[in-house]
Every structure is written in C-alpha cells, then in structure tokens.
Amino acid sequence: MVPIDLSGKKAVIFGVTNERSLGFAIGKKLKEAGAQVAMTYQGERVRPLVEKATRGIADRLFELDVTDEDRLREVIGTIAREWGPVDAAVHAIAFAPRRAMEGRYLDTAKEDWLKALEVSAYSLVAIARELEPHLSPGAGIVALSYYAAEKYVPKYNVMAIAKSALEASVRYLAAELGPKGVRVNAVSAGPVRTVAARSIPGFTLLWDHVEKVAPLRRNVTQEEVGNLGLFLLSPLASGITGEVVYVDAGYHIIGIPDPGTVDV
Questions:
Q1: Could you state, in order of their start, the residue ranges of all structural domains in the chain?
Q2: pTM of the predicted model, to two decimals?
Q3: Does the annotation count 156 as an active-site position?
C-alpha cells in the first residue's frame, strides 16, 4: 500500500453543508492524510449544524456566500495570512432554483439560468482567480461535476448546463494554471444520497436505475468519492490535470442497457 501523507499541507473546501456532502467527504480524507483543512459554508443559520458536523475535521470555518467576491477575497486572504500557501482546494458549490428543476428546460427563466451558472460554474473561476497568488507549486484544485454535464438526465435541467460550463472551466483553468505547476480536475460522481441530490426531482428513480445497470450493479459511496478527491489532490496524481474523472460504478460507460437488467 502506498500511503498518502499530506502532513503540513493546507486545504480549503468551499461549500460544506453537512456530514453527507461530498465536499465534506473529501475534506475528511484530506484531514485523515494529515492536512490542515478550512471549510466554508453559506448562511449563519446553518453554522451550528456545520460546526457539529465538522468537529475534528475542520481547523477553520468561514461563512461565505460565493457570489460576494469581496467576502471571497477576504476569506482567502485570511487563510493565506494565517497558513501561508494553499496546497489543495475543493469546489463543492452548486445551486439552481427549485422551479428551474421541476419543469421543462425550455421554460427556464433567464434569472434562474443566470443564477445557476453564477453559483455553480462561475464561482470556480472566481475562487481560482483569488487563490492563484496563494497556491503552492504542485497545488491541486478539484471541482464536483456530474454525468448530466454531457448526457441528458431528466429533470436535471439548468444544473446540467452549469455542470457543462464547470467542466469546460476546469480545462481552461488547467491550461492557464499549469505553467505554475497547479493542477485542476473534476470528479464526476454517481448518485450519492446528499441533501442537494435528494432535492432533485426524480432522484430516487435515478438511484434505482444506476444500481440496476452500472457494471458494478451498485451506486457509489460517499467514501469512494472522498478517496478519489484525495487521490487527485495528492502527489500520486501529479501528472493529471484538466480531466473529468468518474467514480460512478462504471455507469457512464453504458450505452444501451442490457435488457436483462432493466425494462427497455
């Protein structure tokens, strides 16, 4: 077994909601590997829940609305002053108004489309730009994407468009930050029972479908997503950048499902 030792490394997880969130899962793995971990959350009303969930995991917690770029600059500046160079960052932020997920994509309101893209995709660009002066050589950034970025998934609607923009941003940021030794990748996870995922209309049907047709005949776990995030942010992935790496029990390779596994 090759151990991953991140002792002395500094990591920032943007967008933790609770212990079920994928950002939390990656942060937990980074902490277990020896890194110091800062986490951000949105809304002071959730602070008690986040504090309880991240106790023993987060060394620092910051309230952050990622659309407030002054606050983003302040949070990153504070981390850099207190900790020095940042070695790892995780973008685990996504949002779309509920009404934009329930109807037809064709009927998406302009303001809902713009809000979803701003929060879910542009925020990665803003975070990378503010982090750039404070990233150590060999640092890694990981964003969380989903299969709907490249294939139609019912009811994913505008969030699919946001994930497509997120993945394109990963490639552009990887190209521009690469000369500084900074790597940027995305993790595309299969369905995981997070609070955000369960708010998607039809999530239960999607969960059941993946379990039936994925090559491994199961869904992935939060821990498996955390393991991939840890790998991509570690020296073991030093030659990987600009990639979207799947952890979905192989679901994304399936074209027409085997008739023996699902009704077609």
A1: 10-246
A2: 0.92
A3: yes
